[in-house]
Amino acid sequence: MKSWIIPAFVAAVPGLALAPSVRAAGSSVEVVMQDPSTGSEIHKMQMLANPPTVPAGEVIFHATNESKTLVHEMLVVKVKRFGEKLPYDAKTSEVIERRVRDLGEISDLKPGTSGALTLRLKAGFYVLLCNQPGHYKQGMWTRFTVSP
Prior knowledge:
This protein is mainly beta. The chain has a single domain (23-147), classed as Sandwich (Immunoglobulin-like), CATH 2.60.40.420. The chain has 1 helix and 11 strands; from the N terminus they run αβββββββββββ.
């Protein structure tokens, strides 16, 4: 039987559903980490998420470190609102991870490498950040929203 027959059959029979094992994939988010070594058009550290908003449920983050020289990482931190100050240790130049709602991370991506992380997220506000020493304060973070 050709595979196109099955979807046509399902669509033609009212009330017929696919097996529970067949489900829609989660939302996919591309995260790019860049610093001045990435290219002449990049003048500071930055993290970009596309799209910046997804619906609640399964979210698959695909993070790429476009740096040519630095290790980066991506942490997913739940916040109550944007603009909330994250606890920061000036001695280590890092966000204090044990004092935030760190939901998961893609650790230590070497220059030019990628990684993935799948999370089930509820509606709310999040910050994606790099917590390598000094990177967060230098601008390597972005806002991320999960809609109901």
